[in-house]
């Protein structure tokens, strides 16, 4: 496995973790307190952007599911 494929694999795994955290936040209201990890504002901004990528991915997946009602249905809780 080459460098590019390993890097891609890690990036996709990181996106899956971020999307999972976004799903937890969306369904339960529990959010990751990233600002308690460090006081460095640059690192906090990086983590905030990372978590935003997961929220964006989750929103796009929901829009895609809404676009194809023949394959997906909204369940009532």
Automatic annotation (TrEMBL):
Source organism of this protein record: Smittium simulii
Name of this chain's protein: DUF1748-domain-containing protein
Signal peptide feature range: 1-22
Key words, A-Z: Signal
GO cellular component: cytoplasm
PANTHER family: CHROMOSOME 16, WHOLE GENOME SHOTGUN SEQUENCE, DUF1748-DOMAIN-CONTAINING PROTEIN
InterPro entries: Mitofissin
Keyword Signal belongs to the record: yes
């Amino acid at each position: 496995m080459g460098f590019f494929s390993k890097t891609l694999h890690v990036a996709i795994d990181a996106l899956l973790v971020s999307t999972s955290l976004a799903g937890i936040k969306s369904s339960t209201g529990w959010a990751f307190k990233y600002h308690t990890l460090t006081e460095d504002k640059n690192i906090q901004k990086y983590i905030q952007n990372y978590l935003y990528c997961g929220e964006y991915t989750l929103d796009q997946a929901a829009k895609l599911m809404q676009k194809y009602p023949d394959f997906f249905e909204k369940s009532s809780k």
